[in-house]
Each structure stands twice: as C-alpha cells, then as structure tokens.
Amino acid sequence: MSDKVIIFDTTLRDGEQSPGASMNIEEKLDAARQLARLNVDVIEAGFPIASEGDFEAVRQVAAEIRDGRAIAGLARATNADIDRAGEALKDAVSPRIHTFIATSDIHLQHKLRMTREQVIERAVAAVKRALEYCDDVEFSAEDAARSEMDYLCQVIEAVIAAGAKTVNIPDTVGYSTPMEYGTIIRTLKERVPNIDQAIISVHCHDDLGMGVANSLSAVMNGARQVECTINGIGERAGNAAMEEIVMAIATRGDIYGVHTGIVTTEIARASRLVSDLTGIVVQPNKAVVGANAFAHEAGIHQHGVMANKQTYEIMTPESIGLPENVIVLGKHSGKH
User: Per residue in 207-229, pLDDT tens?
Assistant: First the structure.
C-alpha cells in the first residue's frame, strides 16, 4: 500500500480570508458537513481569537463533527491565542491546536522585532502550552520558504522535541518554485535529527501560480500532509486547490506513489457549495471543477471523445461527481 497524504482543509480559515468571502456560523457548518462527506482528514475551522464569530464557529464545528477527524483551531504563539483555541476546541473528539510564528529574517526584523533565539523560545513555549489542551499540536514556521535553512532546521528540531506532532513548512507568500521547495522538504528530512517523530506538512500560496505544483513537489520529497482549500480560495491569489492536488495524486499514481482518503465523487458538490457560500465564482477554465473542465468544442476533440473518452479526458467527470461530459456545438465543431 502506498503512503497516505493527509488532507488538511483550511477553507473555513485561510479560505475565508479571501476578500469578500466571509461566512456566517451556519454557512461554516454547512461547509464543514460537506468537508466531512469529502472525508478530509483535518478541518481547520477558524482562528478563535480573531473574533467572537470565529470562536463560536470553531466551537460549533468541533461540537458537531464528531466522527473522529481532527478539528483544528489556529493560534499565534501566544498564551492568549492558545488558551482561546483550547477553549473553542474543548468539545472536539479529536482537537488540534495549530500554532505559528514567523521564521524568516524579514518577518523577524520588520514584523516581530525579535531575535532568532527569542523566536525559538516562543515557538517551544507555544507548543508546550498547546499540549496542555490536546495531544495533537501542529507548529507552523510562517514564511518558511524564505527562511534561512540552518535556522529553519533548528526551529523544527526544537518544536518536535517540545512535542509537536506535525510541522508545517509554509510558502506563505507564494514565492517558492517546485524544485526549490522540494529541496527545502528534502533538506529538513536529511538534517533534522528527530524529523521522523513528526509529519511534515506544507501550505502553499498561489501568488506565482505554483501553489499546487509546489505542494506536489513537497509530497515527492517526503511531505505527508498538504494544507489546501476548496477551489483554491484564500489570501491574495489563494491557496493550493484541494481538488487539483487530490486528482493529480489519483490520476498520476505512477508518479507520486501516494494516496489520499478523499471521496472524490464529492468534489463537484463541494466546489459548488463553497462558491455559493462565498460568492466567489469558479473560472470556467479552472482545473478539475471549472465549467469547461469536461467540455469539448473542437471537432477533432469531439470525434476523439465520442470514439473513446481517454483520447482527451485524463479523468472522468463521474470521478468528481458530475454525471457526464459536455459536447459544445460551436464554430470549431465541424459538420461531421
């Protein structure tokens, strides 16, 4: 059996940070129910200290989704954030506190105004504080892709020693490239002595259009959790799209050699629901879930698909929960 890649869905947290994409509590619950039908492994339900609404949404998702999948709440590496997340998750069957602090010099100098040593101390203290509320603690090194490698290794080693079970290596600003990002993951596996005690996670943004490619490169180099969102929604240009990662792994098992537990026939319904709830329209040429993803207008393509779908379809519409493909009669269709 191939290795499993854990799908950590952050549609309700990072996805909701898309401008104009805010959801109320009932809408978040609707989305969480669909994420459960999709069988994502982790639902990041929100950022409890951000607002009363976010706190209550995390609390209600944790109270309702009780089938054993992890429900996560985000927290900065401060006692107040972690305590608030712990309170929001107190009714969860499988709670996870996801705590973070930046590790790149640009963030340390201009945002945190902290030394490298102070950041390590804060990160370790945050993990230990979170462990007072739950056994499942994830640590994120914000802006990891722009962090100095030796220092990143030190931080990751320290938080694993403190008890973090998952270590997330975000490309927070979508700056990295697939080869570079894969090398970061491989280097951590080679140089962090206790890396085998934690799962390496990745969280890629799409500022240069490489969020999915970077995530898949990380998987090929040893990452076993991918953080992503339905339709790729999220801050700025968005996050790596869950449906693209899952279907790439499913379609190209010969390359990736891993699997997910996602019920792929629920993908189309999840995409439509998130679009309806957030008001963010999916572009027609969007991979996997766009309206044109299984539509054919060119006569050559139509002829091929009618003869054998595999001529121009590398996955079936049925595999993501659509009833059939679409043949569009247009000027490129041809008389035949």
Answer: 999 999 999 999 999 999 999 99
